[in-house]
């Protein structure tokens, strides 16, 4: 029986730049940062208040998971903003939105009342959208 989810993957264009964004803009902590095989880098981050689900910041590269063609296609889709990085909860969406805007984070939707709470939608430095949600 599966009991929990430990990691979810966000495909990024550059791991160093993504690490800077998630750590210094969103305030995430670094979980793991290591070379596993060859140039494969296992890089994870998580919100300070919850290390149970870590986000893997992965560059699509040719290797066991992708052919060169499929890695190139994924990179192209990232650049088009076709992927989401997830939904991040906050206790105060308006305050967090203002803090992140002050740090230079780009938003495509300001905090807006929804049926499930208040939501703002931002974009990471690779082009992945993410939601901030206050329930």
From TrEMBL:
Name under which the protein is recorded: VOC family protein
Domain of life: Bacteria
Stretches assigned to the VOC domain: 4-135
PROSITE patterns, per database record: VOC
Organism: Thalassomonas actiniarum
Cited Gene3D superfamilies: 2,3-Dihydroxybiphenyl 1,2-Dioxygenase, domain 1
InterPro entries attached to this UniProt entry: Glyas_Bleomycin-R_OHBP_Dase, Glyas_Fos-R_dOase_dom, VOC_core
Coiled coil location: none
